[in-house]
Design brief:
Helices cover 29% and strands 10% of the residues. It has helices at residues 12-26, 46-57, 63-72, and strands spanning 32-35, 40-43, 76-77, 86-88. The longest helix is centred in the first third of the chain and has 15 residues, at 12-26. The chain is built from three helices and four strands. By secondary structure, the protein is an alpha+beta fold.
């Protein structure tokens, strides 16, 4: 099912967009779907999403890994109110998949290990 993803769709936001477009067409929008007029999405059934959808579209098998990817790409999760559980990003909208190219994962900055000051040897005279 996912074999025809071209290279530009290989990044996470584009895969996510493709999955949501497929959800309606292929009848799994009861598991995950666009909401709020295509400006956000929601996973309605996490166990089914993990079992049926994640293996097809993503290289993760744990929902926490999927959530971490969303966070890394700057998606916001609503945690309270009637929209609780939905995710959105200003450049992630149903009717314009080309905006996905604006969603980037920040480069990770490795913290340099700072050398600790030399430890005085036991019995050494200062």
């Amino acid at each position: 099912k996912n074999e025809d993803l071209n290279r530009s769709e290989a990044v996470f936001p584009s895969k996510l967009h493709r999955m949501l477009q497929d959800a309606k067409r292929e009848g799994f929008d009861h598991i995950v779907s666009w909401i709020h007029g295509g400006t956000a999405f929601k996973v309605h059934d996490i166990p089914l999403f993990m079992e049926k959808i994640m293996p097809i579209y993503f290289d993760q098998s744990k929902f926490e890994s999927f959530r971490r990817q969303l966070n890394l790409y700057g998606f916001t999760r609503v945690t309270k109110g009637p929209s609780r559980g939905m995710y959105y990003h200003q450049d992630f909208v149903q009717n314009d998949p080309s905006l996905c190219q604006n969603i980037t994962r920040p480069k990770s900055f490795r913290k340099r290990r700072t050398q600790s000051p030399p430890v005085a040897r036991a019995g050494a005279v200062a």
